[in-house]
């Protein structure tokens, strides 16, 4: 058995993949090839993704392509990439990118555990991301749907549509001639037969090919059997008319599916098509893949930023909505980071490229969204299995319906019951379910992406419906993850400005985030010659001489050690006490501010029926309690190590109901074990970090916790639409199956119950693309 690291993931675009049933058959057959660890064929995106052992990857790929063309000769597999199944470890820099460039204009992130004084565990991520070894450009360009199919296709371009309409029109005219001209006998049969072959010849041919390949039960077989049966019992007009109606319905179905695909593609159409490469004083229009790290590119108003980089010249307002779902444009100037996929609203800017296209933000997003279709929801898997068993059962039932009643009921004729059985067959096609359900889930994933929420599979989207407990990390999730001076309390004889100035001078040589926050609050230049004798006292603070005066800056233990009477503050946060020449000068309060969005997030989750909100943090209990009370979080666990967080999640698992799910929301950098342990792991602003890509199931591209409620709202809407389609399709089919069995429904109604229901279900699935109004 190979390890995951030895596996290779390959992807093909299946040109001409025209039906969901075909996708299902290909997936089932390819899965059985030896060495294939997973296979997913997505009808909505016309792609096949295959994970295989590395040793035999090329041989298995050939077998997979051969299997596709053997099952569906008109489908042409086109390989678009091969990559390691497990990505290289990615750094924390990417996590900061979206958070920084799209939200705060900074390129790094702090993670820390707050306590009193200077006792902090602090980490910073600055290393460059090791991106994927391949470019995703081809993949995305290939994922744009081809408009021309092969054989009978749902991919109707203008030329195809005109040809099909002419063929159907010709068949309809011949059928009308057979019905209204005074002909009979062999002449009538020949006219209707000609009409039938013009309208449905390709369906009969496809059915015959499938039977030769051992694939009997599909829509072509059912329709050919039903209409040829109608001819066999002398119902020529009905045989032709039903095939005509079926083909018109298929045409509409194909148009509806294409419209749905185009809507989803447009929703994620964030891939830049070109870049203006700066060469001296000239600009050359090139594809983004040609640009290298260190090159300079120019982006004009209205254009997409083609690659990640830093602005060298110019300033502009950036529309980040395609990546982050944020409606408010961001201001950028020289030194600001910008990501591929941003849209330049005004101003001409020159950017120094920091990443190849294959490693850029837009490529990672497309990778996540396109791979999301590999992880199917339970509902999708159920429908696949259901369809596989359902059609043979209906065919056997139809056979019994044709044969048994005439043998046991007096006065019953074979022709009457054969007709009823044929009606039964037409109704039985499970197309509405097999086509509309994957489209519904894919639409939901697309809507979430547009909202800045990347869902890594429809299984996770479906799981959000059952979430009753939401567990939050604190730092960087509910709070901004940045220290700021929130309190300035001078002692008698000192002013606020004096206290802040002394503190900033004392902290001028420290690289600690607390020191940085004090210097940022002071905001003025600090002359180096003013500071001498700098000495860090471990676990206590700093002793330093500022302009000839002995200054102490640190926690209460430092004041106690030096025999200086200090005040015990009431505020929660990190307290920095200051003393000048052994005289107490006052204290500063440094706190990690709660995000503006956090209270709204907790309120929205409560409104959605979330039973319990929990906060797990490594911070000191008073700080955690303060934040928890401010936000109305029901349960708070403080001073936890990463292992303690996992234990806390496991305890919640034991307490939850059998069908309830738990979300854990973390910053995607230091919460990997808990993200992996929860039913649904959500990484906040973690695009590009190893934890976000590998451990989280959902990545929220901004630092907005309220997007969790948005994700749950989209999941609920998607599930409603999917189950509407299931109930509608099965309900209509059940009614018509009964009517057909009792001889009330004709083939006309039967075809409506098949094709009409499918078209309506596909159109309903498109509603999943719209986010719910309530979020």
How do the helices and strands line up, and which of them pair or pack?
Elements: E1 7-15, H1 20-31, E2 36-42, E3 47-53, H2 57-71, E4 76-84, H3 93-104, E5 110-113, E6 121-124, H4 137-143, H5 158-180, H6 185-212, H7 219-232, H8 236-267, E7 275-279, E8 282-286, E9 296-299, E10 309-313, E11 316-319, H9 321-324, E12 330-332, E13 337-338, E14 343-344, E15 349-353, H10 361-372, H11 378-408, H12 414-427, H13 431-450, E16 453-455, H14 458-463, E17 467-473, E18 479-490, H15 496-506, H16 513-522, E19 531-537, E20 541-546, E21 549-554, H17 556-561, E22 574-580, E23 583-594, H18 598-607, E24 612-616, H19 621-631, E25 635-637, H20 642-655, E26 661-666, H21 672-677, E27 680-684, H22 690-695, E28 698-700, H23 707-741, H24 747-765
Parallel strand pairs: 17-24, 17-26, 24-25, 26-27, 27-28
Antiparallel strand pairs: 1-3, 1-4, 2-3, 5-6, 7-8, 7-9, 9-15, 10-13, 10-15, 11-12, 11-14, 16-28, 18-23, 19-20, 20-21, 21-22, 22-23
Biased composition (Low complexity): 94-108
Biased composition (Basic residues): 76-87
Biased composition (Basic and acidic residues): 111-159
- In CATH, the homologous superfamily of the domain at 442-479 and 595-714 goes by the name HAD superfamily/HAD-like
Number of strands: 28
Counting H and I runs of at least 4 residues, what is the number of helices? 24
Low-pLDDT sequence parts = 1-5, 84-157
Distance between the termini: 46 Å
How would you describe the overall organization of this protein?
The chain has 775 residues and is α+β, with helices and mostly antiparallel strands. Among the domains are: 4-90, Alpha-Beta Plaits; 275-306 and 309-354, Calcium-transporting ATPase, cytoplasmic transduction domain A; 442-479 and 595-714, 3-Layer(aba) Sandwich (Rossmann fold), CATH 3.40.50.1000; 482-592, Calcium-transporting ATPase, cytoplasmic domain N. Helices cover 46% and strands 20% of the residues. It is built from 24 helices and 28 strands. The strands form six sheets. A seven-stranded mixed beta sheet has the order 16-28-27-26-17-24-25, with helices on both faces. Helix 5 (158-180) packs antiparallel against helix 6 (185-212) and helix 15 (496-506) packs across helix 16 (513-522). The longest helix has 35 residues, at 707-741. The chain is elongated, with a radius of gyration of 33 Å. It starts with 6 loop residues before the first strand and ends in a 10-residue tail after the last helix.
